[in-house]
Input
Amino acid sequence: MARPRWQPSDRLHARAMVTPAIVVLAVVALYPILAAVWLSLQRAILIFRERRFIGADNYNALIHDDRFWAAAGHTLYFTVVAVALELTLGLAFAYILHRAIRARGLLTAMVLVPWAIPTVVAAKTWQWLYDADVGLVARALPLQDVDLLGMPGWAMHAAIVVDVWKSTPFVALLLYAGLSTIPEDLYRAAAIDGARGFTTFTKITLPNLRSTLVVTALLRSLDAFRVFDAVYVLTEGGPANTTETLSIYAYKTLMRSGDFGYGSTLAVATFIALALLAAVMLTAFGRQALR
Amino acid sequence: MAAIEFESVEKVYRGGVRVLSGIDLSIERGELVTIVGPSGCGKSTLLSLIAGFEQPTAGHVKIDGTVVDDQPPQARGLAMVFQSYALYPHLDVYENIAFPLRIGRTAKDEIDRRVRETAERLGLAPLLRRRPAELSGGQRQRVALARALVRKPSICLFDEPLSNLDAALRHEMRAEIKRLHEDLGATFVYVTHDQAEAMTLSDRIIVLNAGSIEQQGPPMDVYERPVTKFVAAFLGSPSIRFVRPGALGISAGSGVIVGLRPEDVAVESEASNGAVEAVVTVVEPVGSETWVTCAVGDETLVGRAPPRFAQKRGDRVSLRFDPARAHHFDEKTGRRL
Output
């Protein structure tokens, strides 16, 4: 069958159809990004009523800013540990849901509860649980009356627990959907071929779940890298800035100190780091999986 | 010793659905047995019981004389070809065929030798590095066969392996499977709903109906002496027609119904002595012959005519048949008389 030739009016029509979407994207995504980049090239401090172009000075300062590198380190640590735990636990839950014969709907609903709670509410709840005087977690631990959120080293892990608690359901649900797409006959064929439990898992389940795993890991990593509310509600970046992530540092600089120029530089740096993270993950695991 | 035995096997699913009852069956070593029946007759369940995907509710399944009721599929050492092919999509053809050997921890060079030998036998040698998604239906079916046969199993199960292929390929693969069976001498248990497959392939045919064995025996025996109306109707294409004996001038007691296969009824355009008069209702030329559906009074019969049969719908014809070829059944029970 011959393909209909494109008429000039068709092209026009096509352009007219995509224009609204492009306009919306330009207004809500492209403009803020460009504005932030523009701001990051200025010295703009609200209380001094100062605003002038300074070129790459802010970026120069960024490279020598230890607090920035520390925040980047915290963010990366938070992302890697939280996402690794979420994928492991999420896969376990997904497997249980997939194997459940009865009450699958009820189980799914139960697993999803933490995901349905707003992050700020969840973080506040956990803050009380961690409370040194009345918190259940603090009282259950052998070291009683310890302020988990006030101790460097502990606070970051307390925040990771909150993120894992909240996001594992999301991961479990995505992986459960992925598991459901693997045909039962593959498991039967593997059983006939002599494969037992663990071998079946590594040779059949995991390879066929690969693309779902990559997409889930990517979504969760991008989310975790931008983490703000869970940590901010819990610790506001403390103690001693040990839980300060890039988002929190940028927020504090921008909103608390009113340094719009340097705050924007931090935001742009976070944006670039995220883009790099996504690119690295996609080239490392994604190419085949997303084909 | 029998390769596979069923001793009064029953299978009832959760919720009380009875799919198999009173199955007694013995399949000899090296036999090619087909299990046929309409969908829902329990033939796939029967195969699942042999494979070990399901356990009998009552009775026992034996493989090589050992009761295997509680053995998982992994322990039974069988091979199986699935209707969906069930190829591992993330592995190429080579690795698909090698999979059972790798699980069985066969030596590397032995795996390579056997994979290549099996691929060669099935014409897959040029495709070894392709993924299943890059293969045609017929090629996938061959890979599934290769994966089953690479282990040199003593028993191989087939669950409607050809039903996803087109007619020409199905014919070709049927011959291939028959040839493989003769070469390997393994026991093949073949499930199908296609009576032509069952007739052409097997040493023995087992007709299943509503969860029970209706009849079993060599294909031609079953075809020529069906013990019930059901079996008579299930085997043969076009299928047998049942009429009241009176309409054909056959004398038989009351409550008897007579079955005549289309190939036993000759349709002639001229009236002749001793022939039954009929009116043409449908004419179906198939090239080598013409199948003619006729009305005999209130009854319907199908007969065979030469390739270029000139009569049309509404024309008068006469039907000629050997009364000895008529199958008599009890109208109520459907049993052969």
The interface with chain A takes residues 51-53, 72-74, 78-80, 82, 84, 86-91, 99-100, 103-104, 147 of chain B (CB under 8 Å). Chain B has a mean pLDDT of 91. The radius of gyration of chain B is 24 Å.
